Amino acid sequence: MDSKNFSSPNAEKRVFFSSGWFDPSVSPEAQSANRSTVAPPKNSASIEDLQAFSIYQMRVVSVNMAGNVTSEWTTARTMEGVPEFIAPPEVSALSPTSLKVEWNTTEGEGIIARGLVTEYRVNLLTEQTNYPYAPPYISQVLHRVGPSSTALYVVKRIEALSCVQLDCYTLHKHRLHYQSAKHRTDPTSR
Questions:
Q1: pTM score, two decimals?
Q2: Which domain of life is it from (predicted)?
Q3: Model confidence over 115-166: pLDDT tens digits?
Q4: Is there a contact between 73 and 164 (Cβ–Cβ < 8 Å)?
């Protein structure tokens, strides 16, 4: 069986090899009872260490003493994986109390989703110092948007020295996974 990934069309490598002697006149039970008979070749394989949410092409080559034959290519896609990367959002001050938050949704540039993005969230992280046993930051969801929406949000009435966090969510194996990127800014500076 050979594997070919569309991202590198000239890369072809053997990922499975099995040899043996196939004799259709002998039943599998008889072959296992007679230890001197060579086992038939395997007819299935599991291929591991592939990239998540990638398209691969596979084919089978069968060889005997008279020659060989190659099957047509078939295409398969691996399942989605947990998001790998999201670039920090670009944050710019619009006024002393408002910020413009933009993010790049281009696969391979602003994000490596390894699946279908289901949602982006813009969160405001506020540092809290009043309660020593509480988490140091409080996260507040300011904006939720689907993958085909505009990748821009204006945060209004924000305090100086705030931290804006952008989360990218994907659904993988019926569980929601996310990758975050943060930007700390002072909206009073221009």
A1: 0.61
A2: Eukaryota
A3: 888 888 888 877 778 888 888 888 888 888 888 899 999 988 776 656 677 6
A4: no
Q: Which of 77, 95, 123 is the last residue of a domain?
A: 77
What is the number of residues in the chain?
190
Number of domains in the chain: 2
Edge to edge, the sheet with strand 74-77 lists 13-14, 2-5, 55-59, 74-77
- Same domain flag for 60 and 94: no
Instruction: Quick: pLDDT tens for 21-31.
Output: 766 676 766 66
Same-domain pairing of 89 and 72: no
89 and 160 co-located in one domain: yes
Residue 122 domain boundaries: 85-185
Q: What is d(CA 154, CA 152) in angstroms, rounded to the nearest whole number?
A: 7
Instruction: For tokens 């007819």, name the residue.
Output: 43
* Residues 181 and 96 reside in one and the same domain: yes
70 and 107 part of one domain: no
Return the closest-CA partner of residue 86 out of 6, 170, 12: 170
Residues 102 and 88: their CA atoms lie apart, in Å, by: 9
Q: Could you say which of 77, 93, 115 is where a domain stops? A: 77
Residues with Cβ within 8 Å of 7's Cβ and at least 6 positions away in sequence, in order, are 54
Smallest CA-to-CA distance from 177 within 130, 94, 113, 108 is with 113
